[in-house]
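Quick log. Single chain, no ligands specified.
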Amino acid sequence: MFKAAIFDWDGTLADTKEVIIASFQMALREINCSPDSKVIERLIGIGSSQTFREILRIENISFDEQLIDSLVRIKVKNSIELSKEIKLFKGSKDLLMILKDKIKLGLASMNKREFIDNLLKRLELADVFDVVVTADEITKSKPDPEIFAKCLKELFVKPEKCCIFEDSIFGVRAAKSIGVSCIAVLTGAYNKMEITAEAPDLIVTSLNEKQKIWKFLFQ
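-> predicted structure:
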């Protein structure tokens, strides 16, 4: 039986795709860069800084870390302004409420702290998670497992006693690399074949499949 569950945010608990794409595009317009929305979508999950680096490399635009930091600040501001459009996926809040009194809950998001705190408050989830780790507390992006390792440490739970919920190939890869069971949710940018290739322990169409998830976690 698992003693903790760690959830990713974007594409796993919350439908943030359109807001993420729009906030990146708005920031990149500041430097006359207009990448295709699909390019941004496929990079969701690795963190804002790394996403900007990858996009600028693809677009053959030179950059330094000062520019990256500036773009991240603009993107966060845009994200907060657009955050009223963000909604939780069907079944997300119900599942969290069911699990809250059964096991420890962690949130590991590659978003900035300011953005996540704002959303958790608005969506009335601020008191649900025992631990929240964001991009501000780490130095390496997924698929590096640093964010999950830090969350595990703060939850005081061993990897084998935890299950991670993820929607991206980067997240599943990060979870498996440190020996943590992973439930992959098909609500992100990746299809079932792509997710299956990363060998998650369970694949669900959405977090609304509560019975299937419960059976995996507790039986």
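The first helix runs from residue 17 to 29.
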